[in-house]
Amino acid sequence: MTKSPIAGAGAAAPARRETFSSRKLFILSAIGSAVGLGNIWRFPYVAYENGGGAFLVPYLVALLCAGIPLLFLDYSIGHRFRGSAPLSYRRLHRAAEPLGWWQVLICFVIAIYYAAIIAWAAMYTWFSVTQAWGDDAEGFFFTNYLQSAPEAGLSFDYVSNVFFPMLAVWIVAIVIMVAGVNKGISRANAVFLPLLVVMFVILVVQSLFLEGAMEGLNAFFTPEWAALKNPSVWAAAFGHIFFSLSVAFGIMVTYSSYLKRKTDLTGSGMVVAFANSGFEILAGIGVFAALGFMAVASGTAVDEVASGGIGLAFVAFPTIVSEAPFGAVLGVLFFGSLVFAGLTSLISILEVIVAAFQDKLGWSRKVATLAVTIPIALISLILFPTTTGIHLLDTSDAFVNQFGILACALVTVIVVSAGLSSLPRLQKHLNKTSTIKMGVGWRVVVGGIVPVALGYMLINEIQTKSTEQYSGYPAWFNGVFGWGMAGALIVGAVLLSLIPWSEKSRLHDAEYDEFNEAAERDGDVDNNREKVQS
Amino acid sequence: MTPVAITMMIIALLTIWGGLALAMWNLARHPEDEDQLPAPEEMPHEL
């Protein structure tokens, strides 16, 4: 491990860019970001619904042909241009800056609702001890705990059991963010990620000893080979890998911009990608072993109790906790894991936003963090700990995923590959210091296969969401907080790009200019130089 | 568990965790010290 000469630099001139003090800390932070709630509550159900054991085939194809190549694209952009998402895309090409801001605004929307889920999980860690839900986990969650309004809308009736845990989550997140890349993000991940893995391994072992665990694993791993002929199964695999790896919404661009100049980008990325998938497989085993117990205990088949998302975490799991031997331990491990997985992801999401404003306005770390995270926390605390918070969360999550992340990723790969012809340049950068070399195949995948897969998914989503009201909510509600929000992200991205970069901003950074000149001496020439200068 | 489910579980664990082990082994072979990065000719061939 080497010491960072950067952390804590002053703020008068653009301070030197922070760097992760070691590659290990970067990898831990990137895994912490990728391993989130989706690994625990989404993957097991997606795999089960889409062919069980046979899902491994499209999953591996998607991982190798879309997930990892996209991860490397993010790494190459962030590391080559050494900036937050807006600054990196701006340095790639002046006209590409809105892509970066689009990603920043996507992170803003995710951050404001993500904190609510972490807060629920934190409360349920305690409820696991008291088993507050009695014998009706579903009724308790929606009626007693969230006090959910029957109609979707915008209420300002606050639920204290949600508000105060959310406030605590925001305080923890802000403290970590203020401390910076090395003292905050790295340290938090170095503590939370190992803790998460240890807790989850204990959870899996405990689940495997429950009666019925083998029935659950049987249901999870039995292959349904016919599913492989179904295009929607392949789309589900590509969709899951895409969301699971935290690619294409600024996180990996931002994190890789904090890497030292000579870092093995692809070698590190392989560890991050396979660690993320390794955790998902573990989650599949743990969750389905527990669901197998639930099915045997209630005298039903596994397919009748299998679920994902909020239903799995806050309805099925509490039921398992009530019925299983040492259920309280199981509950604390499960919900504690959700809290740690969520926190490490929330930190990475916030870093995208903080870094963007820090770069554009030339603010110090502390000022940028407080000026950005406090307003985000306030908006989050105004909108989500209310009786309509879950409806708002549901719609924002669905629309920001599909018409934010997915749409932005599609536009980004098209702009970077076909629009700016930047893939050869980025490939060269990846290969300069990395141990696993990218060949023409990488360019074909990123510029060809990935846009086709993303385009197919996006068209499907547009058709689905435009023909029926999402979750049966009123049209105005989905219109404002779904379609309207997704559209506002694009408008906002363009407007933020129009704000001029001040003299204090990191666009004028001698350290980068020196790095850029060195890169160009090595033959990394910008094909669009003339266009940029004009 | 049925034999086919056990087989699929073993294949899944071997490919994913095996991939992780390989990736970590590759990284361990190449220390991060900037001065010790391998020369291009020592690196593995393109994917």
From TrEMBL, chain A:
Chief subcellular location equals: membrane
SUPFAM superfamilies from the UniProt entry: SNF-like
* TM stretches of this protein: 25-44, 56-78, 99-123, 158-179, 191-213, 233-258, 270-297, 328-357, 369-393, 399-420, 440-459, 479-499
Membrane topology term reads:
Multi-pass membrane protein
UniProt entry tagged with the keyword Kinase: no
Which spans of this chain does the record mark as coiled coil?
A: none
What keywords appear on the UniProt entry?
A: Membrane, Symport, Transmembrane, Transmembrane helix, Transport
Please list the GO terms describing molecular function.
symporter activity
What cellular component GO annotations does this protein have?
A: membrane
The cellular location(s) given in this protein's UniProt record come to: Membrane
Q: Which InterPro entries match?
A: Na/ntran_symport, SNS_sf
PANTHER family of this UniProt entry?
TRANSPORTER
Per the record, the similarity remark reads: Belongs to the sodium:neurotransmitter symporter (SNF) (TC 2.A.22) family.
Protein name from the UniProt record: Transporter
UniProtKB/TrEMBL annotation, chain B:
Membrane-spanning segments = 6-28
Q: Which domain of life is it from?
A: Bacteria
For this UniProt record, the keywords arranged alphabetically read as follows:
Membrane, Transmembrane, Transmembrane helix
Instruction: Check the record and name the Pfam families matching this protein.
Output: MaAIMP_sms
| Name this protein carries in UniProt | Putative methionine/alanine importer small subunit
| Organism of derivation | Arthrobacter glacialis
